[in-house]
Amino acid sequence: MTGFILRRLAQLLPVLLIASLGIWAMIYAVPGSPVAVIVGENATPEQIREVTVRLGLDRPLIVQYGAWLWAALHGDLGLSIQSREPVLALILGRLPPTLQLGLAAILVGLVVGIPVALASALRPGSWLDRVLSGWSALALGVPTFWLGILLILLFAVELHWLPSASSYVPFTEAPLAALRNIALPAVTLGLYVSGIFARFLRAALIGELRADYVRTARSKGLRERDVVGGHVMRNAMLPFVTIVGLMLASFVGGTVVTEAVFTYPGLGRLLIQAIGTRDYPLIQGCILLVLLLYMGVNLMVDVLYAYIDPRIDFG
Amino acid sequence: MTDAPVVSVRGLDITFAGRIHAVRGVDFDVFAGEVLGIVGESGSGKSVTALALSGLLPPVARVTGSVRLGGIEVTSADAETLRQMRGRDVGMIFQDPATTLNPLLPVGRQITEGQIAHGTLRAGDAEARAVALLREVDIPDPEGRVRQYPHQFSGGMRQRAVIAMAMAGRPRLIIADEPTTALDVTVQAQVLAVLARRREETGAAVILITHDLGVVAETAHRVAVMYGGRIVETGPVEEIFRRPRHPYTAALLRSLPRIDGEDARLIQIEGQPPTPGALPAGCVFHPRCPVGRARAQCRETEPPPVPPGALVGAACHFPDEAGDALAPTVAAKAAAPVASAAPPLLEVSNLHVAFPIRGGLLRRQIGTVRAVAGVNLTLRPGETLGLVGESGCGKTTTGRAIMGLIRPSAGSVRFDGQEIGGLRPKEMRRLRRHMQYIFQDPYSSLNPLLTAGQIVAEPLRIHGVFETMGGDAYVRGLFDRVGLSAGMIARTPRDFSGGQRQRIGIARALALQPRLLILDEPVAALDVSIQAQIVTLLQDLQRDLGLAYLFIAHDLAVVRHISDRVAVMYLGRIVETRQKGALYRQPLHPYTQSLLSAVPVPDPAARGGRGRIVLEGDPPNPARPPSGCAFHPRCRQAVAACSAEAPALLAIAGEAGMVACPLAEAGA
Amino acid sequence: MSGVVWRLLGRREALLSLLYFIAIVGAAVFARLLFSIDPLEQDLGNTLDPPSWKHWFGTDELGRDLMVRTVYGARTSLLTAAGAVLIAASVGVPIGLVAGFFGGWRDGLLMRVVDVLLALPGILFAMALIAVLGRSQMTALVAVGITGIPSFARVTRAQVLSLRQRDFVLAVEALGGSATYNIFRTVLPNAWSPILVQMVILASVAILLEAALSFLGVGIPPPTPSWGDMLRTGKGFLHEAPYYAVLPGIVLTCTILALDTLGRALAAVLEAPEPGMAPPDGEGP
Q1: What is the pLDDT confidence band of residue B323, given thresholds at 50, 70 and 90?
Q2: Contact B429/C177, CB-based, under 8 Å?
Q3: Is B448 on the interface with C (CB under 8 A)?
Q4: Which chains touch C (3 or more CB pairs under 8 A)?
Q5: Cα separation, B114 vs A221, whole angstroms
Q6: What is the Cα–Cα distance from A208 to B175, expressed in whole angstroms?
Q7: Which of A112, A267, B39, B133 is such that its CA lies 20 to 30 A from the CA of A9?
Q8: R_g of chain C, CA atoms, integer Å
């Protein structure tokens, strides 16, 4: 088990190094001097000299990268140009809202997606399957930002049931207020997720239903619900777990578009604001952290998969 | 036989999608304690019949007629009645043990869940019951194995577990659909032995569906031969094999290469088995029938079926002529024109091929699979060397390494005196003109986007000799040479049957006028009646063109038929290489002996006459070969020295052959 | 070949999607002939007019005709998507071919490169690139194209690997054909159907991604008409002019759905693997 994780980490390491190099090099790729980029455009010459020396920007590039990486590994991602606050603190403050939205959306996706997939897969080609497959295509094809606009129009502008801008209320502190705020963004994102889940699980179920072991199970005289529940679902769920995990991984990295629609104070909004104000330390920090979280959750999904599949031997 | 039959089938008729008439009026009865063998080629309707018996056909199948099983009319029963019948009255064994078990559930649970569903076993007793059932089918350490998953079982063990599963509810009927087709011959012998013993212990009736006449001859009491969706002949097994009444049965028996037979040229059944979507009018067999082809009666009217309940009979207008119309027409293969003094065309010495096993941190190499571990071969011009062995023994790897498709890790391959190991890619490509390869699977070896003509011409174009060799006319000549009509030149592979595709593959290999063909299981994927056609074609080509063949196969009967000399491989090494006659008459290596004895002979009279050696265990994993002689853990004659040192392949006194077993030599 | 086209048109959903797609492409190409109004032409006397016979989709906050802007937005969107698909395919397909055919260290190296591209969800990767390169239509096109590279590399590699298992590819080697001959004459012709399907699917993904970037305000810079930017601005006028954000959204959604449907129908007709079963990517690409 430990060996398996270490091996996967060893594979990730070069990717992480190259990606972090790319993130560090961002400020050098931007037009203008990196110091100006970090200090802001209206800096005085004194400030520039002070920052150059303080950040060691007069040293060789490789040393600069090493120092940057070393600091980043110690949690020092620098200060935001706009707010002058530590980048890490800014990011960590935005993480819980994003996680809450991501988890809620995945929940909606599972609740809608799994029944849709089951109903489709048990009668492939039937009218119900065609209707539900059409529904999945719609859920996948409608851009989340447009769906969000439609939902705001209906539930906020017309019916006044829900707020059009969602703020973050921790679910553990005020569940009702949290639900009121998260309902629209979670449904918006969740419907898209349900489309992914339904389409994937339907294909997996149909594939498994054609497998030889299903015929064997029937030949033993098992009830159809045991054939599906005990045999088919178990096999189809295995790759499905991966899909759910990958979805979660990408939401840890920010639910950028949905946050923008509902002006929800998550990580995605922070990144958009940072890009808008050319706050490069903040951009770098956001992307580096998202990268780590994204790859970390991906790794966890791999480990989980290997753990629940008896055929994979942690060697 | 005054008892009521366990299952009684009358007028069974199955149509798919309204036009594919898979089964057309099948009648038979099976009685307690007997084995009915249903024999047929692909598309004959045998597997569809099996599924219909337990009501497992997909809903698109339209089934008429009657199937009475355990007091239930299967064709009209509702889903719940059928479910209760399955597992209780009928158990099923399917072909591929790699896919018939659910990979994510423990084997023990899968064996007993049928009984639990029928309420005949309490969940608390399930594990003890599973252990008992596994023990009954000779699974070693059943207590430990019961919680393991299918991937931890070998193929033979899996199939025995499936037998245990099918018999768990003590059904009166077992339907086994090609139960040993996916298994090696030594493992097949184990599985058939277990099946026979369990049948005797439980008194169940068995329907054994197979294409293998040898398996039928050894295990069945009665036989039904299916062709084109009908039973064309039925009778006791001795009758069928001694005096076939249907020309198809007669021809099928004569078309079979045998390990105990003459070297006579095989009888060929011309043409292809019919597809259920496009059946010929009249007797379905008449287009291929030597008796009926020219007769109006056979062309126009379908013969009446064997009367229901009859124990012997054939659906043929002229059952008395079946036997005599099929005498061999061409003399046997001329004595091999092999001059043993000629310099060898191919010399392989000490060939090793190792594949790395990667693992650990950074995917470093942590071990090697020694697929080929020191193979020596010589092949003279015009000679055929058969290379036989079970799956995983390294025979295909050997062939591909000789061809230069896999890089050997050590050893030398000399073709016509020239070492090919050190050749540069360009020189290697030039050499390939003289050495060609025929693949096993004709469905995968032809580029689906090219026409048959383009496929055959491709080697000419690659080497830039299309025009100099004679262009289109030359390609048409190759088509003629392999028995294909030149009119088919513009069609794509999907328009051809398996046998025809293999002919295209042969034509492609011949295009550059090679001197050596490496044939990798060239007939293994083909129907029995088509195998004879391809084997005969290969023999004719060798006689006319003086080709040398390295014939790689697992089928000992086919190898016997085509080879001059035979080399037997086990786990990457050659254990015995002899002249064909000597090897089959008196095998020396214990592995060769058990291999030959495990092959079912299509002759019920020989049943039990030969002392069968049933090998224990499975072929070992090439990644972890046993120490010393790789065969010693399964060898009956092994002594302490066998596990210490691998025996060398040594010449046999007074014979042009070699064997890698000191004990065998002493006995010879 | 013509058989494939007929079988595709035999599917009702594919025929409808194709007709819609042809209509939108036609409108985008012939926009100048169809409309006498310029998409940038302001009419400050008629701002936020609801849909009427004169302005079918109404007008925006500067009095520009929304229908005209939607059609010109199609131009932006389709051009960006086409360019992105071209970039993604022309980099991704060769990567997949070489990695799949040769295996070994070439495979390891190329796939690590692809892993780096996959180290972030696609939209974040595109945003990071835009943060560096600055906001322009060209940047959007390149960023969307780069995020599409992994999908082509993976689809091609998977197909080549499965072809590598087929004997006819080995047969060409046995016949003496060189690797180059094998790749271009045998492997690539047999691998094109999933690649073609991927091109259609990626076109829909690219349209969605570009629209998302523009909606976030980092994609196509105004005043160039783009669907994402129209929705972004329209969202500010939900009370005064709900049609503003709704009507262009319908066109955007239909375009995405049409391409996705077409890609799936094409996969079914070509018997290619069902697309989009690869790991999902964020909130829709």
Answers
A1: low
A2: yes
A3: yes
A4: A, B
A5: 6
A6: 24
A7: A267
A8: 21
For residue B620, say if its preceding peptide bond is cis, omega within 30 degrees of 0.
no
User: Can you list the domains of chain B with their CATH numbers?
Assistant: 7-100+171-325 (3.40.50.300), 346-416+515-659 (3.40.50.300)
Weakest mean pLDDT among B227-231, B422-426, B457-461: B422-426
Residue in chain C nearest A285 by alpha carbon: C128
Question: What are B127-139's pLDDT values in tens digits?
Answer: 999 999 999 888 8
CA dihedral over B17, B20, B21, B22, signed as positive or negative: negative
Mean pLDDT, residues B367-378? 86
Alpha helices (H) along B403-527: 425-431, 452-462, 466-469, 471-481, 498-510
pLDDT of residue B335: 46
Sheet bearing B516-520, strands edge to edge: B435-438, B516-520, B548-553, B384-388, B565-570, B573-579, B658-659, B650-651
Quick one: tokens of A172?
């553990």
Whether B331 shows a pLDDT value over 50: the answer reads: no
- Hunting for tokens 């994204």 — which residue is that? A294
In Å, what is the CA distance from B182 to each residue of A195, A216, C265, C282? 40, 17, 36, 44
Q: Which residues, in sequence order, are CB contacts of C275 under 8 Å at separation 6+?
A: C155, C194, C197, C198, C201, C263, C264, C267
CB–CB of B498/B442 below 8 Å? yes
Which CATH architecture best describes the domain A94-308?
A: Orthogonal Bundle (1.10)
Report whether pLDDT(B525) > 70: yes
The alpha carbon torsion through B217, B220, B226, B232 (nearest 10 deg) reads 90
Q: Do C231 and A146 touch (CB under 8 A)?
A: yes
Beta strands in B78-179 (DSSP E): 90-93, 173-177
pLDDT by residue (tens digit) across C235-276? 888 788 788 888 888 999 999 999 988 998 888 888 777 765
Residue A1: closest C-alpha in chain B: B360
Q: Which of A3, A217, A234 has its CB closest to that of B104?
A: A234
Please identify among residues 218-257 of chain A the ones whose CB lies closer than 8 Å to any CB of chain C.
Answer: 242-243, 246-247, 250-251, 253-257
- Report the gap between the CA of A235 and the closest CA in chain B (Å): 7
**B258: which residues sit within 8 A by CB, 6+ positions away?**
B557, B560, B561, B601, B602, B603
A29-81 residue pLDDT tens: 776 666 776 666 677 778 777 777 776 777 778 888 888 888 888 888 888 87
Record: contact C112-A14, CB cut-off 8 A: yes
Q: Is A144 on the interface with C (CB under 8 A)?
A: yes
* Residue A257 backbone zone (phi > 0: left; psi -120 to 50: alpha; other: beta): alpha
Q: Give the span between the Cα atoms of A282 and A267, in whole angstroms.
A: 11
**Which of chain A's residues have a Cβ under 8 Å away from the Cβ of B101?**
213, 216
For the question of an ipTM over 0.90, the answer is no
Chain C: residue whose CA lies nearest to A144: C283
* CA-based nearest distance B329→chain C, Å: 36
Identify the closest residue of chain A to B59 by CA–CA distance.
A123
- CB distance C176–B430 less than 8 Å? yes
Domain boundaries, chain A: 2-87, 94-308
* Domain C2-19+76-271 class, CATH top level: mainly alpha
Parallel, antiparallel, or unpaired: how do β-strands B173-177 and B205-210 relate?
Answer: parallel
Which residues from C are below 8 Å from A31, CB to CB? 134
pTM of the model: 0.86
Where along chain C do its domains lie?
A: 2-19+76-271
